[in-house]
Design brief:
The protein is built from 22 helices and 12 strands. With 572 residues, it is an alpha/beta fold. Among the domains are: 82 residues, Gyrase A, domain 2 (2-Layer Sandwich); 194 residues, HUPs (Rossmann fold, 3-Layer(aba) Sandwich), CATH 3.40.50. Bound molecules: arginine.
């Protein structure tokens, strides 16, 4: 697509000798108010360099740009040059790109096939997959989609929490109180009960903790019974997780979680030893991080067993070898900030220059109205329940409103899940929030269903416009675009024009909410256009031009929703 900002910078460069092309490009702004132009150039810096009043410079520049075909109008307002792109040029560019590129519109090949690992979701087996996990799952999925759209070769990894001393406890608990059928019936709920009971009884029975330690060390040595049980707990848990992933429409390329690295720890210890980074402390091995104002990282315990952080170091080393990544992204809660700072610093201390390519992408906490979520206290909301209730609620609304759908189950699933995902992605990821059933089941206002509905409305217009018109609308080269110059149409076109930059910015900042908010803006602008303008008029040329913009809006909303991991039904 034509890059107006670059073209403008090029024009300005012809008249400005005091600043470099790159500096000028950086200074070109998009004004908040569209009455101030589509682009603006502030003259304060030039005023200093030229020792001249900024208003005078703005006036001179505006005069020089006046005759240029790219602009419909150029004005000097105070110290600014305000530039309005020629409407016809902008409209033709937008329609040609959006309709020509279709499902690829907004994407690019800037990634040039470089590998980006996106690690997300990563729940702990035998523990509830709760509302807290939705954040990593949904944000990570969107970041993956955005990077793939920008031409990177992404690898989606679920770093399952499937290893650690807690499995010693679970094995002992199962041996004592376990029933196979119960686990098969409701794996996570049952395993969690065993685990809780273990903790309760261990308070009075000191022998239990020793038994658990023994069981875990047997598991580490590959003991047949322990390994068998652990494998079974893992398989049963994964069955439950898979149900949720299926509802969300989310996939992974690898489930290599913590246990995958259990036989790859030697390398970590060796590397740390070679660099002289390990210190002994009470029989345990640590890396001292005092110099960087961090507490020491515990690498092995007294009994030689490794820890969460050791496995993260092993995983990073393995991934660098296996994937030779350009970037290795971790979508993990901000509670783990210190953990990530610690181990990424350790990678750096190992002399590995790719430490900087490992990026922790944190997000805020979800709490419940009655407090922080606590598995032990039974204060937990299961993700699967949230998704199913959202689907149920949608089904009720669809029935109430007599929504036009040929497949009720499918629509209820698409819209219910879309509502949950959108609500998750519409706020800045770092913000904490309180989970509320009312909020998640509210479909009014700037919500996922509102966007999906706007998309379906666009689809319906195109259907009603008839095949031949829609086909002509899809070839914007020969349309009379003057019909799209009224304000609401032109504002919509400008938002569509910005979509590729929005995707780029969301990728750079690892912030899917930037896409979410822009899609809201487009849906709102589209609805305004729909209300202000009579689209399906009898004037064929006008109808075709307008439907062309409808098609471009529909495509952009669809692509935006796709990046967020939300489906865009044709009817609802
Ligand atoms: N399983 C962990 C948890 O639920 C998240 C894992 C994050 N990823 C990582 N590489 N440490 O808290």
């Amino acid at each position: 697509m034509q890059n107006f900002k670059k073209q403008i910078a090029g024009k300005l460069e012809e008249h400005i000798t005091e600043l470099s092309g790159a500096e000028i490009l950086n200074m070109v702004e998009i004004p908040q108010e569209s009455s101030m132009g589509d682009y603006a150039f502030p003259c304060f810096r030039l005023a200093k360099l030229m020792r001249k009043a900024p208003t005078a410079i703005a006036k001179e520049l505006a005069e020089k740009l006046e005759g240029c075909a790219l602009f419909g109008k150029v004005e000097a307002v105070n110290a600014y040059v305000n530039m309005f792109i020629d409407k016809e040029i902008l409209l033709r560019t937008v329609l040609t790109s959006a309709l020509g590129e279709g499902d690829r519109f907004g994407g690019s090949d800037i990634g040039a096939g470089r590998k980006v690992i996106v690690e997300y979701s990563s729940p702990n087996i035998a523990k509830p997959f709760h509302i807290g996990h939705i954040r990593s799952t949904v944000i990570g999925n969107a970041i993956n989609n955005i990077y793939a759209f920008l031409g990177y070769d992404t690898v989606r990894i679920n770093h399952l929490g499937d290893y650690g001393t807690q499995f010693g406890k679970l094995i002992v608990a199962y041996r004592k109180w376990g029933k196979k059928e119960d686990v098969e019936q409701a794996p996570i709920k049952t395993l969690l009960e065993y685990y809780t009971r273990f903790h309760d009884e261990a308070e009075t029975d000191e022998g239990l903790a020793d038994e658990a330690r023994l069981a875990f060390s047997k598991l580490e040595q590959g003991g047949a019974e322990e390994t068998g049980l652990w494998q079974w707990f893992r398989d049963e848990s994964l069955k439950e997780f898979s149900r949720v992933y299926k509802l969300l429409g989310i996939d992974f390329d690898s489930y290599a979680g913590e246990s995958f690295y259990s036989d790859k720890m030697g390398r970590v210890i060796d590397a740390l030893t070679d660099k002289g980074l390990l210190e002994e402390s009470d029989g345990a091995l640590i890396v001292n991080l005092e110099e960087w104002d961090m507490p020491p990282a515990l690498i092995t315990k007294k009994d030689g067993s490794t820890l969460y952080i050791t496995r993260d170091i092993a995983a990073a080393l393995y991934r660098k070898d296996e994937y030779s990544f350009h970037k290795n992204l971790y979508i993990v809660a901000s509670q783990q900030n210190l953990h990530f700072r610690q181990w990424i610093k350790i990678i750096e201390l190992l002399g590995l220059d790719w430490a900087d390519d490992c990026v922790h992408i944190p997000f805020g906490l979800v709490s419940l109205e009655d407090g922080v979520m606590s598995t032990r206290a039974g204060r937990v909301v299961f993700l699967e329940d949230v998704l199913n209730r959202a689907i149920e609620r949608t089904r009720e609304i669809v029935k109430e409103k007599n929504v036009n759908t040929d497949n009720m189950d499918e629509t209820a699933r698409q819209v219910g899940i879309g509502a949950v995902i959108f609500q998750e992605l519409s706020n800045n990821r770092i913000k904490d929030y309180v989970f509320s059933w009312d909020k998640i089941l509210n479909f009014e206002g700037e919500t996922g269903p509102y966007i999906q509905y706007s998309h379906a409305r666009a689809s319906s217009l195109v259907r009603k416009g008839g095949e031949p018109t829609a086909a002509a609308a899809g070839r914007p080269e020969s349309l009379d675009l003057s019909y799209l110059e009224p304000e609401s149409a032109f504002e919509l076109a400008k938002l569509i024009y910005r979509f590729p930059d929005i995707v780029l910015e969301a990728g750079e900042k690892y912030e899917p909410s930037i896409v979410a908010r822009h899609v809201v803006d487009i849906a709102q602008a589209f609805n305004k256009f729909y209300h202000d303008e009579h689209i399906l008029t009898d004037n064929e040329a006008e109808k075709t031009a307008k439907l062309s913009l409808v098609l471009a809006a529909k495509q952009t909303i669809k692509n935006g929703l796709f990046l967020l991991g939300i489906e865009a039904p044709e009817r609802m």
